[in-house]
Design brief:
5-stranded antiparallel β-sheet; about 55% helix
C-alpha cells in the first residue's frame, strides 16, 4: 500500500502524524505531586489519544484500500485526509500554548490537501475561545497592581481577539488614548513550559513532517528558545518598540507604539489600530489593493531580514491589519522574533545568489559550506538545483502570479520522500538558525497564494540583496523615506540600517 499512496494522502500523512508523537516518560503511574506534572501528563495524554486515533484510521485505510479499485481508494484517501486534518485541528486548537503554536507553524502544509481538510487546518489560524472576563481582570490586577477600571478610563471585558497565548482587550487610557491590552492566559506559562520541557514530544511532532535527515533536535531547540521568549511580554514589548522606532514615519508600514507604564510580564499595552482583518481584506479588496498589500508584506519582511538583521518570524494572518484606502499595513505581535547572529546572514546570501543566477555548481558549494548538504552527498548538481530552486521560481521569471495550487504542489514535491527527489531529501539538513526564516518564506508564499498576486518578485528581492534601484512606485517612496531618515541626526539607533 505504501508504494500506492496517492498524492493527497502523501500530503495528509504529515498532518495525521502530528499526533503520532513520542510519549515515553510520561510517568502516568507515578503520583502527581504538583500541578506542573498534572499539566504535562494531561497534555501528553491528549496527544497520545490523538496518535492512537490516527494510527487506527491509517491501519483501517491500508486494509480497506488493499483490494479497492483506484477510484474507491482515491475516495478513501481523501476521506482520511479530511478526517485527519479535522481531528488534528480540533485537538491542537483547544490546547493553546506551544502545541497550538507548533500546529500553526506547520499548518501551511494544508495547501496540498482537499478543500475540506484545508478548511479544518485553517481553524488553527483563526481565533480561539477566550478566557472569562474575571480571569483576564485578575491577570491585569496581578501584573499592574490595580483593577482595569482603575487603570483605564474605559475597559472592554469581552476581548476583541483571542489567540494561542493571550487575548486582546480594547481600552482607553486616562489621557484619552485608545489602546490594545494583550493579556496572557493564566496557566498558559505552565502549559508552554510543560510542552517545551517535554522535548521528546516536540521532537516527535516535528519529526513527523521534517526532512528525514534533518537535525530535528537542533530545529526544535531553536523553536523552544523563540517560543519561550513569547511568555515574557516584556521581551515582546522591547521588540515591538524597536520595530516601531525603526519604521516610525514609514509611508506604508506601521507598527503600534507600546505603552510601557501599562505593560508587564503577562500584559502588554500598545496603541490601538483599526483596520481590516485578513479575512475581511481577502474578501473585500480589489486585485490592485491585494498586490499593494503583498508588496508591503514582502518589503517589510525583506527589509527587516537584509537591512536590519532582525525579523518577525510569525507570518500568521492575524498579525496584520490592512488599510487598503491608505495603501498601508499595520504589523502586530512581535513575540517570535529572530535576530541574526554574526555570520549567519553572510552564509545564506551565496545560496540565494546562486539560485537567482541559475548557477547549480555555485549553489551546491554554498549549500555544503552552510551545512545544508554533507560534502560526500554524491547527488547530481542539476538535481540539487532543480529541487532547491522550486520555491524561488517566482523570482526567476519576469512576472509571476502566486496561487495556492503552486504553493501546495511545490510543498508536495519538496516533502515527498517517494518522489523524484526522495534520495536528495534524505540527505538534506537545515541548520537550526534558518528554521524561523524557512517558516517566513513558506508562510508568506501561502498568503500570496491565497491573494493570487502578481509582481516581478526578482526585481523586488534584488533591491534588498544587491541594493538595486527601486523597481516599483512603493520602492521609490520607501527609498526616499530611508534617505530622509538616514540624514536625521536625531533618529533612534535602532533605525540605522
Amino acid at each position: 500500500m505504501a508504494g500506492r499512496l496517492g498524492p493527497r494522502l502523501r500530503r495528509a500523512a504529515p498532518v495525521a502524524a502530528l499526533g503520532v508523537v513520542a510519549v515515553a516518560g510520561t510517568g502516568v503511574g507515578l503520583a502527581l505531586r504538583d500541578e506542573d506534572r498534572r499539566t504535562r501528563v494531561d497534555r501528553q495524554l491528549r496527544m497520545w489519544r490523538l496518535s492512537v486515533r490516527r494510527l487506527l484510521a491509517w491501519a483501517t485505510l491500508k486494509v480497506r484500500g488493499r483490494k479497492a479499485s483506484e477510484e474507491k481508494r482515491a475516495r478513501l484517501e481523501e476521506q482520511f485526509a479530511i478526517r485527519s486534518a479535522q481531528d488534528v485541528a480540533e485537538v491542537l486548537g483547544n490546547m493553546k500554548g506551544a502545541i497550538m503554536k507548533a500546529g500553526q507553524m506547520v499548518s501551511f502544509i494544508a495547501d496540498g490537501l482537499p478543500p475540506e481538510a484545508q478548511a479544518a487546518m485553517a481553524t488553527l489560524q483563526a481565533e480561539v475561545p477566550p478566557m472569562a472576563p474575571s480571569l483576564a481582570e485578575q491577570v491585569v490586577r496581578d501584573e499592574l497592581g490595580a483593577d482595569p477600571d482603575k487603570l483605564f478610563l474605559e475597559w472592554e471585558p469581552v476581548p476583541r481577539a483571542a489567540a494561542s497565548i493571550g487575548q486582546v482587550h480594547y481600552a482607553v487610557m486616562p489621557d484619552g488614548r485608545e489602546v490594545a491590552v494583550k493579556v496572557q492566559y493564566p496557566g498558559v506559562d505552565r502549559a508552554i513550559k510543560s510542552d517545551l520541557d517535554n522535548a521528546e514530544l516536540l521532537y516527535g511532532m516535528f519529526a513527523a513532517f521534517a526532512l528525514k535527515n534533518m537535525d530535528v533536535k537542533a530545529m526544535v531547540d531553536e523553536l523552544r528558545i523563540r517560543m519561550g521568549d513569547e511568555l515574557d511580554y516584556r521581551k515582546e514589548a522591547r521588540y515591538q518598540q524597536e520595530f516601531a522606532d525603526r519604521y516610525r514615519g514609514h509611508p506604508f508600514i506601521h507598527i503600534p507604539d507600546v505603552v510601557p507604564e501599562r505593560s508587564a510580564q503577562r500584559v502588554i499595552t500598545s496603541e490601538w489600530v483599526d483596520g481590516m482583518s485578513w479575512k475581511e481584506f481577502l474578501a473585500g479588496s480589489t486585485r490592485e489593493q491585494k498586490e499593494t498589500a503583498a508588496e508591503i508584506l514582502f518589503r517589510f519582511a525583506e527589509g527587516s531580514i537584509w537591512h536590519h538583521g532582525v525579523f518577525n518570524g510569525d507570518p500568521h494572518p492575524g498579525n496584520y491589519r490592512f488599510h487598503p484606502k491608505k495603501g498601508k499595513v499595520t504589523f502586530l505581535d512581535f513575540g517570535l522574533v529572530k535576530r541574526w547572529a554574526p555570520g549567519e546572514l553572510e552564509t545564506l546570501s551565496p545560496i540565494l545568489d546562486a539560485i537567482l543566477r541559475q548557477n547549480p555548481g555555485g549553489l551546491v558549494q554554498a549549500l555544503v559550506r552552510a551545512g545544508f548538504l554533507p560534502r560526500d552527498h554524491g547527488m547530481p548538481e542539476g538535481l540539487i538545483y532543480e529541487f532547491c530552486s522550486q520555491p524561488y521560481i517566482p523570482f526567476q521569471l519576469e512576472r509571476f502570479t502566486y496561487t495556492s495550487k503552486f504553493v501546495g504542489q511545490t510543498l508536495q514535491r519538496m516533502l515527498d520522500l517517494t518522489g523524484q527527489y526522495g534520495d536528495l531529501i534524505k540527505s538534506l539538513n537545515m541548520p537550526p538558525s534558518y528554521v524561523i526564516l524557512d517558516r517566513v518564506v513558506w508562510g508568506f508564499s501561502a498568503l500570496f497564494g491565497k491573494m493570487e498576486v502578481t509582481a516581478n518578485w526578482g526585481r523586488l528581492l534584488s533591491e534588498y540583496l544587491s541594493d538595486a534601484p527601486p523597481s516599483t512606485e512603493l520602492g521609490r517612496i520607501e527609498a526616499e523615506w530611508r534617505a530622509r531618515r538616514d540624514q536625521d541626526p536625531d533618529r533612534p539607533a535602532t533605525a540605522a540600517r
